[in-house]
Structure to design on (128 residues):
């Protein structure tokens, strides 16, 4: 998402084979809070032999599960969140990357659920 772009809704889903990049000033958010449970997501790369990729979900509903169901190589699937970018939700955030997550932005989650999955996850300066 380009800098200063804003994308919001009751549920917002982003998926890519190679990379999702939120530049400084970009904001991805869900609106409201629902008592509904999360949805199960099955991720498929059409015409590919692997299910590598990146998936981001912000939702007013509960946290949903992610299923890839096929080979994951970790060769692609990067999530990059620049300093000054925001991912926000009142209920659930899922950040799922098969390669790396580099997070330097703001994570705004009040009284909700957070799920992180990646080959390597870095917040700010350091890898964990």
């Amino acid at each position: 998402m380009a800098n200063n772009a804003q994308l919001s809704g009751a549920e917002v889903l982003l998926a890519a084979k190679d990379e999702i990049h939120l530049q400084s000033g970009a904001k991805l958010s869900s609106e409201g809070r629902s008592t509904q449970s999360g949805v199960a997501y099955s991720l498929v790369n059409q015409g590919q032999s692997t299910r590598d990729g990146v998936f981001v979900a912000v939702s007013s509903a509960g946290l949903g599960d992610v299923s890839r169901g096929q080979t994951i190589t970790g060769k692609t699937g990067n999530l990059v969140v620049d300093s000054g970018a925001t991912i926000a939700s009142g209920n659930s955030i899922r950040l799922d990357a098969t390669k790396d997550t580099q997070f330097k932005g703001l994570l705004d989650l009040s009284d909700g659920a957070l799920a992180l999955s990646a080959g390597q996850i870095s917040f700010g300066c350091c890898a964990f």
The radius of gyration is 14 Å.
